[in-house]
Design brief:
- With 390 residues, the chain is an alpha/beta fold.
- The protein has helices at residues 11-14, 22-33, 52-62, 73-91, 107-118, 134-141, 187-200, 239-242, 257-270, 276-288, 290-313, 337-348, 374-386; strands at residues 39-40, 101-104, 124-129, 145-150, 171-174, 203-207, 233-238, 251-255, 317-318, 326-330, 350-351, 353-354, 365-369.
- The strands form 3 sheets. The chain has a 7-stranded mixed beta sheet with strand order 2-8-7-6-5-3-4, sandwiched between helices.
- Helix 5 (107-118) packs across helix 9.
- The radius of gyration is 21 Å and the shape is globular.
- The protein starts with 10 loop residues before the first helix and ends with a helix.
- Bound molecules: pyridoxal-5'-phosphate.
- Pyridoxal-5'-phosphate binds next to helix 5.
Length: 390
């Protein structure tokens, strides 16, 4: 009897691009087997650990057994109110805690599910390139069509939205402060984006995961500061980056009621929310976590300056920005970013993220992350200074 082998993976899963960096990971292991201490500057996983405000709050609430079940609505409400107060204090934006906020299990979860909750097959979703891969991948999973908006240094890494009027997008992903380029957006750009959404009917999704990772007195702004933005935009915020607690899995989305209703409808069929003691700890941070936050940012800022000085000493060209956990660096003399990353690993024991992993317009660049312990960053800087002319 002839058997046909069917793939276990659904077609939409098969449609996802393969992981680009497998080769690099195996080369790293080889290097380590040779006895080289590889310093990993490739991933953006904040290493400082959650503020003690959150840890103490969590410890107290873990003893409360009535919080061990499915998250009580009263706890969700405490969180939504804390978010609403913070949005007012930080951005002067009014958010209705009952209809314009939703907790998410990390912004990655929220972003991906929002795409699935709103994009139909054949809908166009505008996705920046280079970018955090979840925007394009969730679009593929939704069966919708991702259309690339190139980001270039000539345009300060802001998309030329007017070029895309003709495609009638359903969703437009924006991400400022930006991963991987570290670029920032000011209110004038958000005003342009809101006008674009109003005239095209698109929903703007601003991923503001790095909104609180700012240095040297810089304050990022919220897309919701623009008058009327709440009708056409949502914004995601993440405790992972703001408070160095990526493993806790908590964030939130604020803005358009219609979008939040759609996401809530999908999520109540897929998950059962964030663990109540985690929501309460996160709420306490929005109120009392800012001194500890400032100390963390000072530490990341110190590493960033160290890396920037080492890059400059080696004549690397980088994007100068007051925000994010990343430095976006041009590969000297152009060329393949994967090959360059392999060369850095081989000659200097440094692991960096090749730009092409963020999309075709990331080619020719690599990304350094400041989420590596300061003593290791020091060693990385010495090695970077030695690779001049690689
Ligand atoms: C731009 C961007 N958005 C979202 C996320 C995901 O964050 P979270 O831990 O909140 O899911 C990341 C993580 O690296 C990111 O870089």
């Amino acid at each position: 009897v002839e058997t046909t082998r069917r793939s276990l993976q659904a077609k939409r899963l098969q449609a996802l691009p393969v992981y680009l960096f497998e080769d690099l990971a195996s080369k790293r292991l080889k290097k380590e087997a040779e006895g080289v201490e590889v310093i990993d500057l490739s991933i953006g996983d904040p290493d400082l650990g959650a503020p003690s405000t959150a840890i103490e709050n969590l410890k107290r609430n873990l003893g409360q057994k009535h919080l061990h079940g499915y998250t009580p609505e009263a706890v969700n409400r405490v969180f939504r109110q804390a978010v609403s107060r913070w949005m007012r204090e930080r951005f002067n934006v009014e958010i209705d805690p009952d209809s314009e906020v939703l907790p998410v299990i990390g912004t990655k979860e929220g972003l991906a599910h929002l795409t699935m909750a709103t994009a139909d097959p054949n809908d166009v979703v505008l996705v920046p390139d280079p970018a955090y891969p979840v925007y394009a991948r969730s679009t593929i999973l939704a069966g919708a069509k991702a259309v690339t908006m190139p980001l270039s240094p000539e345009e300060d890494y802001l998309p030329r939205l007017d070029d895309f009027r003709g495609v009638q997008p359903k969703l437009v992903f924006l991400n400022y402060p930006n991963n991987p380029t570290s670029a920032t957006a000011e209110k004038a750009f958000y005003e342009e984006a809101v006008a674009f959404a109003r005239s095209t009917g698109a929903l703007l999704v601003n991923d503001a995961a790095y909104s609180e990772v700012c240095f040297d007195g810089y304050h990022s702004c919220s897309i919701l500061e623009v008058a009327g933005a709440k009708e056409v935009a949502v914004e995601f915020h993440s405790f992972s980056k703001t408070f160095s607690m990526a493993g806790w899995r908590v964030g939130f989305v604020v803005g358009s009621r219609r979008a939040i209703d759609a996401l809530a409808k999908l999520k109540c069929n897929l998950d059962s929310g964030v663990f109540a003691p985690i929501l309460l700890a996160a709420s306490s941070l929005l109120e009392q976590g800012w001194e500890e936050h400032a100390r963390m940012i000072a530490e990341y800022g110190k590493r960033r300056r160290m890396l920037i000085e080492a890059l400059a000493a080696s004549n690397f060209e980088y994007h100068d920005s007051p925000a994010t956990l990343y430095i976006w660096v041009r590969i000297p003399n152009g060329g393949s970013s994967v090959e360059f990353a392999e060369k850095l690993l081989d000659r200097a024991g440094l692991l960096v993220a090749p730009g092409c992993g963020f999309g075709e317009y990331g080619e020719g660049y690599f990304r350094l992350s400041v989420t590596c312990p300061t003593e290791k960053v020091e060693i990385a800087c010495e090695r970077l200074r030695e690779v001049n002319g690689i």
